[in-house]
């Protein structure tokens, strides 16, 4: 089997490639990545010399390149995306280009060459839940509430429409919040860990009562592999982590995993369009494909903290050179 992974230098894409070489050592992987601020060759350092791995620098919006690469493989796994909600609120253009136009390009090429296509998406396309609402499932109506989730919703619709109109051999997965090693230091847990390691507090938007369901990226990657191999064409599969915690509870767990006291939490103004609660009913993928998360949040968090402690050379240059601090300060003021 030869697969094209897009966005494989990002957080989840790089976990997926590692899972492939661990579980399907005879597969070949082409990784197409535009190396945006979130893409990092260091995320694939351990696989760069693998004989069945090839990296191609380029964008999923490049029609000619996408056409050529899709023609070479058996399946296309789309992880490439602009993914940070706060950034989408400030500048939506890269989100429109990659998450919508880029996905259309991949779908068009997959239809043209009759290739298997899997689209990685998010539960944020479903909006948010009240405290007692039933969890999202495959029949939940779409209701995106920020520019990021609006573009991801559009991409899901593009894929689903092509499955009906052009018989695209496609599947979609919608997953809840991922955590684990190689998470770019701009999301709650990776900012939290790196802030603490640099003596800064964890930032909490609003009152921190928003609830997230955490899943380790390795478990997500294993679920995507299950969908690729055993999923029914035309279907959507939802993945969750069985780990619903409020942002404050999550941050307290993180502080405790790092041996810190609670005074390392700082509350800042809430961002616009903040969703209250995400939670996923993953019974379909469990019953049909036998997938369920393997790591508890406590186990995964400990592993993640240890990874950031032992890989300062990975995150320190990102914090220093990415403009993250300047960008964050421009949005949220003098937070240090
Ligand atoms: N992180 C989460 O919690 C989460 C949860 C559910 C779903 N998802 C979805 O999983 C996928 C991967 O998310 P992630 O957190 O790994 O993202 P990420 O931001 O860490 O990585 C995205 C990768 O895509 C690449 N990329 C961006 N634009 C590109 C383009 N035009 N062409 C080629 N490559 C491009 C980047 O360079 C980067 O390597 C996304 O589709 C996201 O919507 C993420």
From TrEMBL:
Q: Which GO terms describe its biological process?
A: nucleotide-sugar metabolic process
Q: What is its EC number?
A: 4.2.1.46
- InterPro entries on file: dTDP_Gluc_deHydtase (IPR005888), NAD(P)-bd_dom (IPR016040), NAD(P)-bd_dom_sf (IPR036291)
Tell me what reaction this enzyme catalyses: dTDP-alpha-D-glucose = dTDP-4-dehydro-6-deoxy-alpha-D-glucose + H2O
Sorted keywords for this record are: Lyase, NAD
Please give the Gene Ontology molecular function terms for this protein.
Answer: dTDP-glucose 4,6-dehydratase activity
Top enzyme category: lyase
Q: Pfam families from the xrefs?
A: GDP_Man_Dehyd (PF16363)
Signal peptide (from-to): none
What name does this protein carry?
Answer: dTDP-glucose 4,6-dehydratase
Query: Lineage in the entry?
Result: Bacteria, Candidatus Uhriibacteriota
Gene name of the record: rfbB
């Amino acid at each position: 089997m030869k697969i094209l992974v897009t966005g494989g230098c990002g957080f989840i894409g790089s976990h997926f490639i590692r899972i492939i070489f661990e579980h399907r050592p005879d597969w070949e992987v082409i990784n197409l990545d535009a190396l945006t601020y979130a893409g990092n060759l260091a995320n694939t350092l351990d696989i760069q010399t693998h004989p069945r791995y090839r990296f191609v620098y380029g964008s999923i919006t490049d029609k000619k390149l996408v056409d050529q690469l899709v023609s070479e493989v058996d399946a296309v796994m789309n992880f490439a995306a602009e993914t940070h909600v706060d950034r989408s609120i400030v500048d939506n253009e890269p989100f429109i280009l990659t998450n919508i136009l880029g996905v259309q390009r991949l779908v068009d090429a997959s239809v043209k060459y009759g290739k298997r296509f899997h689209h990685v998406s998010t539960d944020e396309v479903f909006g948010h839940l009240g405290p007692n609402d039933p969890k999202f499932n495959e029949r939940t109506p779409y209701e995106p509430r920020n520019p990021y989730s609006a573009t991801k919703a559009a991409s899901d619709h593009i894929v689903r429409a092509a499955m009906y109109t052009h018989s695209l051999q496609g599947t979609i997965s919608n997953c809840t919040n991922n955590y684990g090693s190689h998470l770019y230091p701009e999301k709650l847990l990776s900012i939290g860990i790196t802030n603490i390691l640099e003596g800064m507090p964890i930032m909490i938007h609003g009152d921190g009562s928003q609830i997230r369901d955490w899943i380790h990226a390795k478990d997500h990657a294993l679920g995507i592999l299950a969908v690729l191999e055993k999923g029914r064409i035309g279907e959507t599969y939802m993945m969750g982590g069985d780990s619903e915690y409020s942002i404050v509870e999550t941050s307290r767990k993180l502080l405790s995993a790092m041996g810190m006291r609670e005074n390392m939490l700082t509350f800042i103004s809430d961002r616009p369009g903040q969703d209250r609660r995400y939670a996923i009913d993953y019974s379909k993928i469990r019953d049909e494909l036998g997938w369920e998360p393997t790591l508890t949040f406590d186990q995964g968090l400990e592993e993640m903290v240890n990874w950031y402690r032992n890989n300062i050379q990975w995150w320190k240059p990102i914090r220093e050179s990415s403009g993250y601090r300047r960008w964050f300060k421009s949005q949220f003021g003098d937070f240090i």
